Structure of DUF4230 domain-containing protein:
Amino acid sequence: MLGFLKHRAALWTLSFFLLVDIAYIVYNLQKNQDPTLLMVAFLILGLILGALLVIILNKDRKDAAPTLRTESSHTVMESMQKVFKIVTAEGHFNEIYDYKETSKLFKFIPSTKKALVIIKGKVHLGYDFAKAKWEIDEDNKKIKLIHFPEPELLSLDTDYEYYNIEEQFYNLFSKEDLANIQREGKNQIRIAAMKSHLPQTAAEQIELVLKELLMARDWTLENADLITESAKRLENKSLQP
């Protein structure tokens, strides 16, 4: 609104000086007693003042008109199922992803587009208890683990910040390029999380939780080493080329 007031003030100031100038021309024309020039001067004056008036009125009308915005949203739930998944470890990762792609125009003029992307990821690791197997000994108040799954990635949230984007008019970043950068960056975060100490932390945490829950009811947990072994299996897989 303040910008428009300045704009309107400038228009009125310009109109005033134009009016003074034309009045001076009309005054000189009256001295010369030339009716044709006098009529032309009045015509120019009318056109200028009319144009300024139209500009000001249109500007007032645009500013007074409310902004109309239409939004719509349709959410459809595809499926729902019951799960027993527990998050036992959370990690935060920063990945610096350097993207470069070189192509040749007319098969001999090289062109390189590149971008430096900082990817921030929040990773949740945990266990799907639907994959676990155990035996219950109610008489002796024992739970014996038969099989315990490996810790798995339960969620991965990422945020992308782009720096130093360089491209040329015949080698621009497309939507597919940006989608590939985000997909590859997210995959790098996943790999880094699985190669870190996070799976071992998840295993230690779930073992502690299970033992404390059972201890509170005077139960014991057997074959707890299967939990540690599951994390080691995942670590060995991540180390494989």
